[in-house]
Write a structure and sequence with these properties.
elongated, mainly alpha, two-stranded parallel sheet, 4 strands
Length: 117
């Protein structure tokens, strides 16, 4: 039951960020303020590595985590950071109210896990 509660809270917070992004973009567009958000997937970070290291079989857990990603690997920190730099730059001057998924396809793709394709 705790996993279902945690999933519900996590999902609600993600939905809140998307709604807040749209609301703030609408509220501030007239002031020339752009508001966007980036939705990262599971990223290859030290925090994720610590979780994997704590598993009974870290290599098997990593393989399973990679296999469930549509790209067959975790998103890198740079792959999350670079779009943020773009969105903050003048090059994205006409981008506002956007939620950009940097998740290797997790949000929209429905594919079999790597190894089952």
């Amino acid at each position: 039951m705790a996993d279902l509660v945690n999933r519900a809270l996590y999902s609600a917070s993600k939905g809140a960020v998307a709604a807040l992004t749209l609301a703030m973009a609408a509220d501030h567009v007239g002031e020339g303020i752009r508001v966007n958000c980036v939705n990262p997937g599971t990223a290859d970070t030290p925090w994720v590595q610590r979780l994997l290291d704590a598993a009974e079989d870290p290599a098997a857990e990593r393989a399973a985590l990679d296999a469930r990603q549509p790209l067959g690997r975790l998103v890198t920190a740079n792959e999350v950071a670079e779009p943020i730099v773009y969105l903050a730059s003048p090059a994205a001057g006409s981008v506002t109210g956007t939620a950009l998924a940097m998740d290797g396809g997790m949000q929209g793709l429905r594919v079999r896990p790597v190894g089952q394709r």
